[in-house]
């Protein structure tokens, strides 16, 4: 068993998920590859309350030296998630440390939904709207979560 696989197994065993999160280990057909994780977040407060969001978390053989890669599988209107699903989270880039565990990544992703920030945006339209008018931002989030089109972009219906 590789060092990355052993560390990931340890991280999964120690994982304590809040009620708004679920994680599934997806077995890949090639046994030598590390498994892919599917994280589902259902925020119970804030702008994104009522939505259900899925993320794919992948690991390289360099884990934990290198951070996992996280991709949002839903097209959503969020300042820190772009239209291709890339996630802007400091612990997945410059603040990554091998001392961080999968628990930190999950909490970081949840934090993106509970404490929405216009800092370091990947979606500049969402960030500008958040900083300019939080009420307008709240309406845009609700409409986008229902699958409507905003600024020429069609979003996934992530409600119920």
From TrEMBL:
First-level EC class: transferase
Keywords in alphabetical order: ATP-binding, Nucleotide-binding, Transferase, Ubl conjugation pathway
PROSITE patterns, per the entry: UBC_1, UBC_2
Documented EC number(s): 2.3.2.34
Gene3D superfamilies per record: Ubiquitin Conjugating Enzyme (3.10.110.10)
Residue positions of the active site: 88 (glycyl thioester intermediate)
Pathway membership: Protein modification; protein neddylation
Catalytic activity reported: [E1 NEDD8-activating enzyme]-S-[NEDD8 protein]-yl-L-cysteine + [E2 NEDD8-conjugating enzyme]-L-cysteine = [E1 NEDD8-activating enzyme]-L-cysteine + [E2 NEDD8-conjugating enzyme]-S-[NEDD8-protein]-yl-L-cysteine
Gene Ontology MF terms: ATP binding; NEDD8 conjugating enzyme activity
Entries under SUPFAM superfamilies matching the protein: UBC-like (SSF54495)
CDD domains reported in the protein's UniProt record: UBCc_UBE2F_UBE2M
Any single Pfam family the record assigns to this protein: UQ_con
Signal peptide: none
Domain UBC core positions: 3-150
Similarity section: Belongs to the ubiquitin-conjugating enzyme family.
The protein's name: NEDD8-conjugating enzyme UBC12
